[in-house]
Amino acid sequence: MNRIELDNTKRSTFVACPRQFYWSQVLHLQPKFGSTAIRYGVAFHALLEGYYTYIKENGWNIMLDPDAIMAAHKAGKESWEEETEGREYMEDFRTFDMCVSTFVEYLTKYDYDLESMEVLAVEEIFYGDFNFEINGIPLYFMGIIDMVIKRDGLIWIVDHKTTGQPLAKMANVLHRSPSFIGYEWAARNFLNLDSQGITVNYIHTSAYRSRKTGEYTSYKKDFSRYPQVYSDHDLEQWRNSFIYTAYKIEECLSRDEWPMYFDSCYNYNKSCSYTGLCEQPCNYKEVNTEGFVTRKWDPRNRDKTVF
Q1: Which residue, 146, 157, 231, 258, has fewest beta-carbon neighbours within 10 Å?
Q2: What is the pLDDT of residue 209?
Q3: Looking at beta carbons, which pairs linking 19-22 to residues 24 or more positions away fall under 8 Å?
Q4: CATH of region 31-301, choose from 2.60.40, 3.90.320, 3.80.10, 3.30.460
Q5: How far from the centroid of its chain's Cα atoms is residue 249's Cα?
Q6: Is the CB of residue 60 less than 8 Å from the CB of residue 107?
Q7: pLDDT tens digits, residue range 117-158?
């Protein structure tokens, strides 16, 4: 290994559970039975990416610009099909049609962006030397920032979040999100942006399911944007935490040992996707991985760097 490369997903996965890190980041295993929530979120991100990329390249016309919406629909549909391919889903109200209709409501909600927001970058890739070595191995930080904007003359990082939880609750839960602080650190140190902070763009979609009929009714859609501002001290403490996690990852890699953190077997009202692997009564190197597919994510495969 000539360098250690970490992104926010790798960092958070290892902090949650080293064994989960082994399954998802070393072996690159992903459950064949997909999550409708994740597919919905990924597709919604793609809709936003397609729309704002068009706006960046062509400028604002009207909020419901047919060409911009067509670009969004194309990107969203491709993402939906890619997430669906090779996986099984227990379908619910989070369909692609619901995704598109929510997206249109989102545009209507924020029609004032037309006059106040300039899109500087969409899906901005960063990759850089952390200027730190772990046992002589240089540490690198990489990732993708959803969007960089200028509003009223000030630069902000934007991160899109889809959720079925109440928005005020999510804002409180994620206020100190290490991912957000990491994006802000990268914006300042790798992209040389005079960023004011990060605006978290929350998109809520939920529905009530009848116990008698099994049908979904009472659909709810809500949108909110929460600004998060971090001090130099916050960024310094995040960097220290990132380095500490990198040390622990390198320790597990060098020893080829990946202990379980049982506290993380059940989070966000559901079991860990890899519980079926961990529960097999054998050495973890000999588990049966039937029901999983191999998928590797690397932001550098997307050549969209602007800054």
Answers
A1: 231
A2: 86
A3: 19/258, 19/259, 19/260, 19/261, 19/274, 19/278, 19/284, 20/261, 20/264, 20/272, 20/274, 21/249, 21/252, 21/258, 22/252, 22/258, 22/284
A4: 3.90.320
A5: 21
A6: no
A7: 999 999 999 999 999 999 999 999 999 999 999 999 999 999
